[in-house]
Write a structure and sequence with these properties.
Rossmann fold, about 40% helix, about 350 residues, 15 strands, binds adenosine-5'-triphosphate, elongated
Amino acid sequence: MKYAIETFDLTKKYKNFTAVNSINFKIPKGTIFGMLGPNGAGKTTTIKMLNCLTQPTSGTASVAEFDVKENPNEVREKIGMVPQAVSLYKDLTVRENAELCSDYYGIPDEEKNDRISNLMDLVDISYAKDKLISQLSGGQKQKASLVASLVHRPDILFLDEPTIGLDPTTKRVLWNLIRDLNNSGHTIILCSHDMHEVDMLCDNVGIINTGKLVAYDTPQGLKDSLLKDEKMEYEKNISHTLNEVHNENGGNLPINLSQNQDNICLKKMSFIIENQNEEIINSIKALKPVNEVKLGENNRINLKINSFDDDVVNDVIKTIISKNGKISAVSTEEPSLEDVFMKVTSEVDKDARA
Ligand SMILES: Nc1ncnc2c1ncn2[C@@H]1O[C@H](COP(=O)(O)OP(=O)(O)OP(=O)(O)O)[C@@H](O)[C@H]1O
């Protein structure tokens, strides 16, 4: 099996409203897939169709090679789901909840205890195995939920906002756990609003907006595409201006305007140079890919770089050092997954919203 999940024009309508609009994507087996989208975008509805909790209106999906419409029972055996609101029995213990799930999937008694104990050790919740769910903290509940969801050894695990409301330390524990589960062969579908979490954990990311899949790539691919898009947009605008000026001047292009064609900000840099002086600043300004050098407070210099080439950062640093500049802080900033999210979800089709 190459793909854990494949969707084919997957669509869900509620009366006249289209919640999920002909979505097509493939999730390779053994990878972590992040699903992003604004509130009401259609993520939960998509997950529900993949979990056979609701039927597609049209189109279909294959989950672990079973069709969600034709073989829902087989699909259910291959998947595990950790919902956002933990859906365990509050007046049963961690172990009792896991046993209940185990019985639901018909795991033989002789295997049941070992499986549950191993899983509780894996997620580090054995110490609270006899506590009622109602007595657990948020992070402990998430771990108990993971044990219950993994007891039948699903190939594919769906996690809906698994770390929401957790403290930074517990978040890290769960992130490590997600990586461990992935390394042991589980395909993971992660729904999250936490861009850092998705950027760090996921092999591929899909962004859904008003029911449509508007972006799908690796996290780095999405960020790179933003750089390229901005570059193309800039070039489109500048070439339009250049043509206008060209025509206005009877075919003569002012040379300084044509040079501006390179004037694209692809990276921001910020320095603190303790012994800042005019010579250092002029030498930075003289570097070709550098533009918009601005002096800030406390000897800070902010500049923009119009090149994809990472060597430019080194060139700037070398130039400062060659002028005996003492650098006490350097930072660079590139587009984040959040920038991509904001861009691809900014064009809201108002008619497509509920
Ligand atoms: N049972 C339903 N009947 C009618 N409309 C529904 C139903 N379930 C969901 N919707 C609508 O479908 C759209 C997508 O909802 P969905 O829950 O899939 O969004 P989401 O991306 O998961 O959002 P969030 O991030 O807020 O959880 C919303 O406009 C919602 O109001």
